[in-house]
Amino acid sequence: MSDRLERDVRFLKRYAVISTLAFGVLAVTAFRQQNPEKVKFTEIDVERINVVEPNGMYRMVISNRPRSIGPIYKGKPFGYEGGGRPGIIIFNDEGTENGGFTFTGTKDASGRVRASTHLSFDQFNQDQILVLNYSEDPRGRATGISVLDRANVDILDMVNERDSIQKALASDTAALRAAMTKWAGPRNGEPLAAQRMFVGRDRSKSALMALSDPQGKVRLRLAVDSLGAARIEFLDAAGNVTRSLP
Q1: Left (φ > 0), alpha (ψ -120 to 50) or beta: where does 74 sit?
Q2: Number of helices (H) and strands (E), helices first, in the chain?
Q3: Residues 195 and 215 sit within 8 Å (Cβ to Cβ)
Q4: What does pTM read for this prediction?
Q5: How far apart are CA 222 and CA 199, in angstroms?
Q6: CA–CA separation, 216 and 104 (whole Å)
Q7: Where are the beta strands (DSSP E) in 108-240?
Q8: What value does the mean pLDDT of the chain take?
Q9: How far apart are CA 137 and CA 115, in angstroms?
Q10: Rounded distance between C-alpha atoms, residue 152 and residue 183, angstroms
């Protein structure tokens, strides 16, 4: 009986020591997790990362498609739901979306490719004005850099106005079409969006530079076509070539 008692006492001592050590390790780990200053990972799998300011305001969101974020204006969602923009979305000092980097790419059973890579920077409280874009679909492939002008209209006001029109005229197709045409028209003489420059390769396999006026009409075009022939064209506001070289 005494031998068994001694064995039990030794077991309890060892159990007490091990339990104390385990508790100490857990306590230290919990303390470090509650007060993280810097954490190093060799590898991490994640579906979304939010980079935020101390007040919780977004500065960058990195995500897969299902967890991607929709448009944000001063910290509040607007426009449309998330779930369609895998990549990186960045935000300005007010928590409003300010551009991003997105990418897609698939090939269907018949071998048709649909792919895109898009890097853009937004005008303040507006949409993209500097774009690096690649797109490919059954119509062909295009790659280039675009510079745009945008009207000085707040994007949230534009979206709210559009949504109000669509809601009020949803049952009247003709009136809705007319109202949306007016909504998309110039503001104080400025188009809502006008591409001023494009440099790249279009779907016809031409390398080109197109320079446009403030209304977005191409006025000067320099191109080398798919056969290697070069030309320079001057155009009027209606898109007619008024002079060409050679």
Answers
A1: left
A2: 3, 14
A3: no
A4: 0.78
A5: 10
A6: 28
A7: 113-122, 128-137, 140-150, 193-201, 207-212, 218-224, 230-235
A8: 90
A9: 7
A10: 14
Cα Rg of the chain (Å, integer): 29
Tell me: pLDDT of 123 over 70: yes
Which residue type does 184 have?
A: A
Residue with structure tokens 């979306």? 97
Residue 111 amino acid letter: G
Q: Are 99 and 120 in contact (CB under 8 A)?
A: yes
- Is residue 33's pLDDT more than 90? no
Question: Are the C-beta atoms of residues 48 and 61 closer than 8 Å to each other?
Answer: yes
Q: Predicted confidence band at 116 (pLDDT cuts at 50, 70, 90)?
A: very high
Nearest to 69 by CA among 94, 43, 95: 95
Q: Please, are residues 147 and 159 in contact by the beta-carbon 8 Å criterion? A: no
Q: How far apart are the first and last CA of the chain?
A: 113
Does pLDDT of 7 surpass 90? Answer: no
Is the omega angle on the peptide bond into residue 246 within 30 degrees of 0, that is, cis?
A: yes
pLDDT at 32 over 90: no
Give residue limits of the domains in the chain: 1-39, 191-246
Write out the two tokens for 192.
């809502």
Alpha carbon 41 to chain centroid, angstroms: 26
The reported pLDDT for the residue numbered 16 is 57
| Cα separation values, 140 from 96, 99, 133, 135, 230, Å | 34, 26, 14, 8, 21
Q: Which of the 8 DSSP states describes residue 187?
A: B
Residue 51 is predicted with a pLDDT of 96
Q: Where are the beta strands (DSSP E) in 193-229?
A: 193-201, 207-212, 218-224
Residue with tokens 């503001």, as numbered in its chain: 187
